[in-house]
Amino acid sequence: EIVLTQSPATLSLSPGERATLSCRASQSINSYLAWYQQKPGQAPRLLIYDASNRATGIPARFSGSGSGTDFTLTISSLEPEDFAVYYCQQRSNWPPGITFGPGTKVDIK
Amino acid sequence: QVQLQESGPGLVKPSQTLSLTCTVSGGSVSSGSYYWNWIRQPAGKRLEWIGRIYTRGSTNYDPSLKSRVSISLDTSKNQFSLRLSSVTAADTAVYYCASMKGYFDDWGQGTLVTVSS
Q: Rounded to 5 degrees, what are φ and ψ at B66?
């Protein structure tokens, strides 16, 4: 099974600041990585797919990068509605499976 | 974009079978474009993929749950279902259904299932 780790566990920032979130895979997953945002009591929402493509309706302040084992989600300037938990997720052909990272909580400083 | 809604008992006794249904609207479970998935999230923990079913009925399950899980389609009702047998307290979680082309595009709102006697 491919294991995803995320850092930091918590990121305390102010509105308007830049957020940089990291996700690392235990082995290469090419670009088969997505990022999701989850707010309390809500289902996750797809933000980024295939490492760097924004999903439909996602603002341009969200961007993704990386390939292989190291990936980054950047929020260029935090809006009040961006304070949430962010999960990365991989889909691999071998070993086959789908796993999520433990999440990074972005909270208000 | 499709809409998904989970339904089923909120309380299941240990050793029994958890059964949930996901009703799909705005799209067809018979569509060749989608995988139909179940995902769960224990309180305060990460998301866990349980498994998926393709439109032609082929399934994939997470290896850690494979011996206890079954996912099926009901095309006449535009639904898909989850059965998880021999449940324990560790299976207590919010259960989500989700559609997937390459990634989890649309999600249900989630339903809390508690395993307790």
A: -55, -35
Q: What is the pLDDT of residues B45-71, one digit of tens each?
A: 999 999 999 988 899 999 999 999 999
To the nearest whole number, what is the mean pLDDT of chain B? Answer: 95
Q: What angle do CA B1, B2, B7 make, to 5 degrees?
A: 155
Mean pLDDT of chain A: 95
Report how many helices (DSSP H) and strands (DSSP E) chain A contains, helices first.
0, 11
The answer to whether the CB atoms of A98 and B49 lie below 8 A apart is yes
- For residue B44, give every residue at least 6 positions away whose Cβ sits within 8 Å of its Cβ, in sequence order, or none: none
Residue matched to tokens 């989600």: A73
Nearest to B74 by CA among B82, B85, B63, B86: B82
Is B49 in Cβ contact with A87 (below 8 Å)?
no
